[in-house]
Amino acid sequence: MSTDAAPLEGRALFLYCACCPTPCRRAMPTDDAAQHEACTPSSLSMIALAVIDGQLAPDAATRAALARTAAARACRAACPYGFDVAGAVEAFAAGLGPAPAAAGAGAGAGAGAGAGAGGPSTGGAR
Ligand code: SF4
Predict the structure, then answer these.
(1) Spatial separation of the C-alpha atoms in residues 65 and 12, rounded to whole Å
(2) Ligand 1 centre from 104 Cα, in Å?
(3) 82 three-class SS
(4) How many helices (H) and strands (E) does the chain have?
(5) Nearest CA to ligand 1 atom 7
(6) Contact 61, 115 (CB under 8 A)
(7) Which atom, in ligand 1's list, is nearest to the CA of 16?
């Protein structure tokens, strides 16, 4: 009923979108690449949320998943809440900073150190 609510940002936006039944999906392109479930705004939000909550490492696979925003961008105007999820995901991914070193680069000594330690950083510094 309230129409004066502050716009959602960050984790709150991702949580809201992740739980949404995706009515915007009808506006997504119909080609195969765009119709992957992982490309929907709610799936992208779920991935971002999992990173924020420390349930998913911001590794190369996660970053690649977060980079698939074309379909979410294409259906942005169809979000009844006016969310720009593609933009939010892109900004979130940019805030993750440089990707961790490739798995083979560490020679195994620190194999466990980078995967779950530290958690995501959404801070502004690089
Ligand atoms: S972008 Fe809007 S309509 Fe689409 S899943 Fe997210 S909250 Fe729902």
Answers:
(1) 20
(2) 38
(3) coil
(4) 5, 0
(5) 17
(6) no
(7) 7
Q: What is the pLDDT along the chain (126 residues), one digit of tens a residue?
A: 444 566 789 999 999 999 999 999 989 888 766 678 899 999 999 999 999 999 999 999 999 999 999 999 999 999 999 999 999 999 999 999 877 766 554 443 333 333 333 333 333 333
Pocket test for ligand 1, best of 20, 47, 76, 89 (most atoms within 8 A of CB): 20
**Mutate which of 13, 14, 85 for ligand 1 pocket (most atoms within 8 A of beta carbon):** 85
Classify the C-alpha dihedral 113-39-69-23 as positive or negative.
negative
Instruction: Answer whether 48's CB lies under 8 Å from 72's CB.
Output: no
